[in-house]
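Protocol step 4 of 6: structure prediction from sequence.
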Amino acid sequence: MGTTFSYEEAAKFLQRERPRVSPFVHAETSTGALQDPGPICKAAREVDALVIADTVTSLGAAPVNVDAHGIDIAYSCTQKGLSCPPGLAPFTASAHALERLNARKTPVREWYLDLKLLAEVL
């Protein structure tokens, strides 16, 4: 069985490294681990890091509670926890994530998953 991160572990790492983004995997099927987003989100907010959650295996199978936890970006797929045909990628971004995106001074070097470009189209 896999283990998950406590608030103390997440805070120690994030305080030391001071990243702009703190990604994590919400659920990992190979280890059976289900990470509580709370500790990572709390520690990330303390260093003003955006939180990105990989919910590929958890969306539809376990509560994600994006807004309640303060997850800035979450992405998934349809063929895992949602048990739907493949090909779609559910995605959400918070107002804070969009503010950070719009404040970018340098352009994205690739067009692949360029959220600023996608936002302009929508």
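Step 5 (inspection) to follow. The helical segments are 7-17, 37-46, 66-69, 95-102, 115-121.
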